[in-house]
Amino acid sequence: MIHLEIDGRAITARPGQTILEAAEGAGIRIPTLCHLKGLSPWGSCRICLVEIANWNGRLVPACATQVQEGMRVVATSPRLTELRRRVLELLFAERNHICAICVSSGHCELQDLACELGMEVVRVPYRFPGLALDASHGKFVYDPNRCVLCGRCVRACSEVEGAMTWGFSGRGIHTTVEPDLGGPWGSAETCTECGKCLEACPVGALVERGKATAEQEKEPQLLAQLTERRPRA
Amino acid sequence: MPEVTEHEVSRLLEPYLGRPTELIQALHRVQEALGHVPPLAQRVVAARLGVPLSQVRGVVTFYHFFRTQPVGKHIVRLCLGTACYVRGADRVLQALQEELGVELGGTSPDGLFTLEGVRCLGACGLAPVRTVDDAVYGRLTPGRVREIVAGFRRG
Ligand code: SF4
Ligand code: SF4
Ligand code: FES
Ligand code: FES
């Protein structure tokens, strides 16, 4: 067993566990966004940043950092809340998250994080990239203007469904997720229409066609349930 | 340009059959032969190497080196670096765009020129600079740019 400290509490964890898993085991909350149980660790959104007090206060993503003997983790502090809020603001500003006109309002992890972290204003200008909405699929709709590039759909589609329909395309500020050779989704030959990407998506970027706001609730925990039931290799 | 066939692309890919780790090499080979990697070729690469379509697309769009559109007979690279900018590269760009009838990254309707912007060609003393294929042209003015283009058009 590994002995570490999170927010001043002595905690034991199994080798190979992440700081996030150790914290969850101890009932300590660390906010996450790109992380989803059942999918491989990713570490891209930086919402789960924690500070390692005995590594010179270094910031690491809790979801993608393994526990180490003697680690002293700060998971809750005004500095971390401020940093996480900053990260959130950048995510909001990158596309056009206007909750009042979003079908996922009320069932959105990004919105929930804003409430949890007390983000009241976005201090950087919105980019409003004006990307094309893809409503070509018979069952689902993809609105890249609400995508936070968390890669949860990409991982759900490749790791759980095995279809590998979704992938990242472009680079830097022009990065988007796209099906097959770049859409339209409706003609993506690899898509099995299973809907796993949709359940994994934390925001209103992937939604069910023709469902009203109140019905857009997702079940991201499905991915973990599916992977846990599978026989291990 | 004649449409490339699936068969032609398959032939190019013979050395890479069933070898997903050779993705970048295979795409290189295709681009060398065709000048660009059109969607049809991306599809054949995916099938022959055993790589998901989304991953082929990811690589093709990540590296600036790969193109998905055909290129012109000549590639014009105008420097948009700092020194060239200070010496009026913006006016040169304007003139080039008007003369060729393309935006940055585009290919002229006659298929003769592809216009690209680059950041510093390492010849700042000659600013503003551009290259046409392998030849370097310095101290450009909108007027000179038009002359040079006319020269290439005459062949
Ligand atoms: S519906 Fe299933 S197969 Fe289709 S893109 Fe989503 S996860 Fe992949
Ligand atoms: S579509 Fe949804 S799940 Fe996929 S990267 Fe964007 S926000 Fe994440
Ligand atoms: S949840 Fe850890 S980096 Fe996104
Ligand atoms: S800035 Fe143009 S050559 Fe250096």
Bin the strand percentage of chain B.
5-15%
Q: Specify the structural class of chain A.
A: alpha+beta
Shape designation of chain B: elongated
The overall number of domains of chain A is 2
Poorly predicted residue ranges of chain B: none
Structural overview:
The complex is a heterodimer of chains A (233) and B (155). Chain A has 233 residues and is α+β, with helices and mostly antiparallel strands. Chain A folds into two domains: 2-76, Ubiquitin-like (UB roll); 96-229, Alpha-Beta Plaits, CATH 3.30.70. In chain A, 24% of the residues lie in helices and 15% in strands. Chain A has helices at 19-25, 78-94, 109-116, 152-161, 196-200, 221-229; strands spanning 2-6, 9-13, 49-52, 58-61, 72-74, 140-142, 166-169, 176-179, 206-208. In chain A, a hairpin with a 5-residue loop joins strand 3 (49-52) and strand 4. Chain A is globular and about 55 Å long. Chain B is elongated. The interface between A and B is medium-sized, with 17 and 12 residues. The complex binds iron/sulfur cluster (2 copies) and FE2/S2 (inorganic) cluster (2 copies). One iron/sulfur cluster is lined by residues 156-157, 161, 163, 165-166, 191-197 of chain A. One FE2/S2 (inorganic) cluster (FES) binds next to helix 5 of chain B.
What structural keywords apply?
heterodimer, A: 233 residues, alpha+beta, Ubiquitin-like (UB roll), Alpha-Beta Plaits, five-stranded mixed β-sheet, 9 strands, B: 155 residues, four-stranded mixed β-sheet, 7 helices, 4 strands, 45% helix, binds FE2/S2 (inorganic) cluster
Task: Describe the secondary-structure layout.
The complex is a heterodimer of chains A (233) and B (155).
Chain A: E1 2-6, E2 9-13, H1 19-25, E3 49-52, E4 58-61, E5 72-74, H2 78-94, H3 109-116, E6 140-142, H4 152-161, E7 166-169, E8 176-179, H5 196-200, E9 206-208, H6 221-229
Parallel strand pairs in A: 1-5
Antiparallel strand pairs in A: 1-2, 3-4, 3-5, 6-9, 7-8
Chain B: H1 6-12, H2 23-34, H3 39-49, H4 53-62, E1 74-79, H5 82-86, H6 89-100, E2 113-118, E3 130-132, E4 135-137, H7 142-154
Parallel strand pairs in B: 1-2
Antiparallel strand pairs in B: 1-3, 3-4
The structure holds iron/sulfur cluster (SF4) (2 copies) and FE2/S2 (inorganic) cluster (2 copies).
One iron/sulfur cluster binds next to helix 4 and helix 5 of chain A.
